[in-house]
Fold this protein.
Amino acid sequence: MSIALIGIISVQWFWIQTAIDNKERQFSLNVNAALQTVSEQVSERELREYLAVYQKLLDSIATPKESEITAVFQYVDRNPNTNKTYVYNHGILEEDYNITPSLIDNSFQDTISIKEYKSIQLTTIIDESFENEMSTMSSIERLQRIERISSMDRAKYSAIFSEIAANRAIHRRVTNIELELLLQRELSNRDINIPFEYRVFNETLATKIGSENFINSKGYYQYQTPLFMSDQGESDFDLVIAFPSKKIFLRNSILGTAILSVLFTLFIVIAFSNAIYQIIRQKKISEIKSDFINNMTHEFKTPIATIHLALDAIQNASVQENPEKMSQYLHMIRQENKRMHTQVENVLQISQLDRKEISFSKTSEDIHKQLERAIEHVSLLTQQRKTIIKTSFDAKESTLLVSNNHMTNVWINMLENAVKYSEDTPEIEINTFNTSDFLCVSIKDHGMGMINSVKKKVFDKFYRETTGNIHNVKGHGLGLAYVKQIVELHHGTVSVNSEKGKGSQFTVKLPMKNDN
């Protein structure tokens, strides 16, 4: 399960990384495609402008019917002082008169028509610059002029126009508004709606065309494409674009799927952890139950063996003739039987408490008298161990509404534990006192004590501190679990303060007002 879980987490991490890489590659492809489209659109727009001017020049020349200009725009010059552009045109005019040689001489059978070729030179002055010439033309007029240009003429003169345009400054060929609008449109068409910074470079030198904050994007990855490519595939200008929020955009693009993946993986981890916890818990419960069965067997084995020996002794004729010995053996059988009954009763009481089936009637009782009865009940055990018990009943209000039998059993269990877990001569201190609305009963011994890990589990059912295979302390691990449940049913609390080798102090706090 651990290997499978590690594998799932690794695969999920690899998938997320791969998804980010794929998104980044797709992002780069879309950006490069958008830049290429923008570059083509800018070049196409510039070519259309030149073609519109070219067609206007054609319209200014009185061309014969069915004539064709085969060359134009040999030289363009601009005078900055007069703000005028001089366009020197040199073309060849071809005119077909539809005349064949047979019309002149009948002997000629050739069908080739006679054509006239003229050399035309024309100088056109475009006032207020080339841009003003374009601005005087309406969009419809410009479109009509461009449509009248044949595809052959368009291809023929595009190279000439490129050479002419190369002599113009970059800020006269394209504007910030045009580039920004085109970039926004093309990127938006490819679902890239994040801020960007751009700049046009002339080789390594930045031009005036670009966003103001481009310098702040120097640390980010930049994309570029040539601008105004020549027929030879060369360009002096590059359009460079950068995206400051690119990483955030890429992460957000897979954020939803990544969160679901992490969430489901987390569910698997929680389920796996819970499964491991339950396995460990069941293992501990199984060990505790095994210990309980072993302890129960040991606790029953001794009284059964004692009863068996006593019965064998009673069957002896000499014992039957001696009433004193007979009475002694019968008393022994009665005590051992009572001991087994008590052990069974403890187990049944815990079972009834778990199922909430125990009968629980409360009466007004004096806790001090209950403690005295509990001390008397364990007198045989305390006498056997020569136990020293010191009492200090300082509580002024000691009468509470409690279950007499169960609370008496609580004190008996606590006293028996104090004796059993004390070495040599046990010393027990019993104190009572009042605090605000509570009656507190403290039972302190100077015995073995407990470490912190044992203190946390001492009130758990069937729990007993591990002492190896030595069974020098008898019990089932049910006494303190019973104490805790009974005290809580009286809306009280029980706590322990202990130090290994210095003894333990158990404190029970019972509310003075307990109507339920």
Residues 255-314 form the longest helix (60 residues). The two ends are 49 Å apart (CA to CA). The chain is about 50% helix and 20% strand.
